[in-house]
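#struct-help
A.M.: can someone run this one for me? Single chain, 227 residues.
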Amino acid sequence: MIEPTSDPTLAPTPTIDADHPAVIAFARRHASAAAGTREASIALYYAVRDGIRYDPYAVGSDASSLRASTTVAAGRGWCVSKAALLAAACRAVGIPARLGFADVRNHLSTTRLRASMGTDVFYWHGYASLRIDGRWLKATPAFNVELCEKFRLRPLEFDGREDSIYHPFDLEGRRHMEYVHERGEFNDVPFQAMMETFREHYGPSIVNEGIPKGDFDREVEEETRRP
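D.P.: on it. Structure tokens below:
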């Protein structure tokens, strides 16, 4: 059980539900053997990065779809929900955590996904921000290692000492990720602001109904299959 705190970077929120039994169990399972804060943050980063599959079709039309406990139960999520889980798991073991957001031009997507969104710009791309040894470090656990291997990307590593943000190019020198606008860091998901941006750029149907569902793993298999 999390003790009450006045520090908002340690407290549970409606989305970063660090006091949920499933989140506490997830955090303890992966960080219990860690020797200190840095080691625990690293263990939790990789547990979220590779233990929770990246699925952009997991975007929902209500805030409950972003809850850390929801993502634990589903075993998959998109960048914001995976970042919320990492932040919640860190808070559950006493590591201060926030959520950071940026608009990115993301080349790790599929033809169907880009058509559904109408753009290759992902607004409000999410990452976690963790306070370790007095410093705030960015940690981006979105893309699991298998996905990176299929797209010929360097998986993002996190060592608890430096920021972990996406490489601009893939292993073959092609453009991968471009950060086009920083939106800042927050103690919880700014859901309404996010939905307003989505409505403006993606259209009201995505806000009201979410992205039309698809099988992202299958799409990736088909588009990255090599002769």
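A.M.: thanks! The radius of gyration is 17 Å.
D.P.: also worth noting: The longest helix spans residues 37-51.
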